Amino acid sequence: MPNQDQGDNPSAENPAAGEAARAPCAPAGLFGGLSGKLLWLTVVFIMLAEILIFFPSVASMRVRWLQDRLNTAAAAAIVIDGLQPVELPRALQKETLEATGTKAIVLRKDGTSRLLATTDMPTSVDESYDLTDVPPVTAIRDALDTLVFGGGRMIRVYGPVGDTNTGVEVVMKDRPLRRAMFVYSRNVLLLSVLISLFTATLIFFAINRILIGPIRRLTGSMQQFSSDPDNPAHIYIGDGGRDELAVAGRNLTSMQMELQKTLKQQKNLAALGLAVSKINHDMRNILASAQLMSDRLVDVDDPMVKSFAPKLLRTIDRAVGYTTEVLSYGKASESAPRRRHIRLLELTQDVKDMLAIDPLSGIEFAEQIGAELEVDADGEQLFRVIHNLCRNALQALTSPGEGGPGSVRRITVSAQRVGSVVSITVDDTGPGMPLKARQNLFAAFRGSARSGGTGLGLTIARELVLAHGGTIALVEKPTVGTQFRIEIPDRPVSLEDYRSRPHIEK
Q1: CATH no. of 337-399+408-500
Q2: Could you tell me the pTM of the whole model?
Q3: CA 24/CA 220 separation, integer angstroms
Q4: Residues 378-382: contacts with CB within 8 Å, 24+ apart?
Q5: Which of 100, 235, 309, 343 is positioned for an S-S bond with 297, CB 3.0–4.6 A?
Q6: Could you tell me the residue ranges of all domains in the chain?
C-alpha cells in the first residue's frame, strides 16, 4: 500500500531533492555573499547621496558663473563710464563685449540706465535673471531649466556692483553657460564615482574583517557540526570579544556542546534500550514461570504463607506488566492510561508494603488519605509514580549522616479532592534536594539527587502524570526535606455517557 503522505513530501518522490536539501551549502565567493552585496549597496547609496547633493551644487555653480560674468562686465562698465563724455569706438566696444562674453552692457546709476557697449543687439530676450538675491529653490529650478532646455536662448542678467547702488545689466547667449554646466556635471559625476568606489572599498574590507569573517566562521562551524556532530573538533571556538557576534559564538559553542552531550546520551539510551529489549524476552519467561509456581502457594495451609501470598502475587504481576511495557517505553512513549476510579488509600498501602521499611530503621510511613477518596487514574501507572517518589524519599532518609539523635524521619503521603482534581502530596523530612538536581529535575541521567542514580524515576513519573492530563512539581517548604505535589483531574464526562447511567431518569 503506498504511503499517503508522499504527496505532501517532495523528498519522498525525489530522493535526490532530499539529499540536496541535507547537503551542506558551499559559501558564496568574496563578492557573491554579504560582503559583495554590501559593496554594491554602498556604491548605490553614495551615488544617490551625490545626486541629491548635485542639484544644489550645479545651481550654485551656475549662479557663480553668471556672477563672474556680471563682475567682469561691471569692471568694464566702470572704466567706460569714466571716459564720459567721450564715446567708446565701435571696434573697442566689440572687443570689450567679446572679452566679457556678452552682447550688450548697461550701467544703472543714479536712477538712470546707460547702454555702454553693444553689437548685434538682439531683438528679444528669452529669459531674465536677477542675481540680487536668488532663493535656493529658484536657483535649482533655473539650473535644471538651463541644462534641459538651454543652449540657444538669449538671456538678460542684472545685479548690483558690490555694496553700491550702482547696477549692471548684460545680455548674452546661454550656450557658454550650458557648456560650462555640462563640464561641471561630468566632473562631479566622475568624482562621485571615485568617492563611492573608494568609500565602498574601505567599508568592504572593514566590514569583511569585522563582520563577514566571523559570520563565515560561524556558518562554517554550523555546517561542519551538522555533517559530523559527534566530532569534538567541529565545536566552534570563538574569541573573547564582547560584541554581538562574540556573544553569538559563545552561545553557539554552548549549544553545540549541549547537543553533542544529548546525542551521546541518546546513543547510550538506544544501546541500553536494545540490551533491555533482549533481556526482557528471557526475563518475562522467568517471571511467568515464577508466577505459575507462586499460584500454588495459595493452597498451602501455613498462615504465614497465606498472609504473604497475595502480596507476592501482586508483586509478580506488576513485574510481568513492567516487562511487557519495556518495549513501549523504549519507543519513547508510555502506553495510554487505562483509567478507572480506584481507592487511593489502598494503592498507598500497596506502596508501603512494596517499600518494606525495616521497623528497626526508625523511619515512619504516614498516610493522611480518606478511606473513601477515589482518583480517576490508571492504578498501575499511579502506583509507579507514588512508588518512585516514596522510594527516593526512603533512600534520602537512609543515606549516611541522616537520622541523628532526636531527629524525626518520616514519609507522609496525603491527598485531598478539590472539585474534579485530586491533589496528592509526597513529603519527607530528609536532607532536601541538591541544587544540581533541582536544575535538572525531570531530565533523565541528569536529575538524580544521589550518587549513582539515573534520574529516570522522576522522568518516568512526569510522563505518566502528564499522560493523565495532570501536573507534578517540586514544592518549596519552610522546613527541611523534599515535597512533591501531584494533581490529577478527572476525565470529562460526555453528555451521552452521563445520560446513559442507570440512575438518571430519562
Answers
A1: 3.30.565.10
A2: 0.44
A3: 9
A4: 378/337, 378/338, 378/339, 378/340, 378/464, 378/468, 379/340, 379/342, 379/347, 380/318, 380/321, 381/334, 381/337, 381/464, 381/467, 381/468, 382/342, 382/347, 382/464, 382/468, 382/488
A5: 309
A6: 34-195, 337-399+408-500
